[in-house]
Amino acid sequence: MPLQRRTPKRGFTNIFKTNCSVLNVGRLSEEFPPGSTVTPDSLVEKGLLKNNKRPVKILGDGEINVALTVKANMFSQRAVAKIEAAGGKAEVIEGGV
User: How far apart are CA 38 and CA 49, in angstroms?
Assistant: First the structure.
């Protein structure tokens, strides 16, 4: 039997995958006062992220009850809906790795 048929198949490795730092909107309302601007740098200062080398994605788990301007690389649809329902804005920034 040929060698290529004897060796096991290991699957597919996606070299184009983007690894993101994720954060839920529930954590934002706990850490930031109403009316403040949330950026990746401010998330690192508060200790919610280790570093800002990777793009930041905001997910929609939890409740947000303060109006914040959130600037991140990516948002889920639920996160945008919850931020805007609380009176805030979700702004997409470019950059990251």
Answer: 12
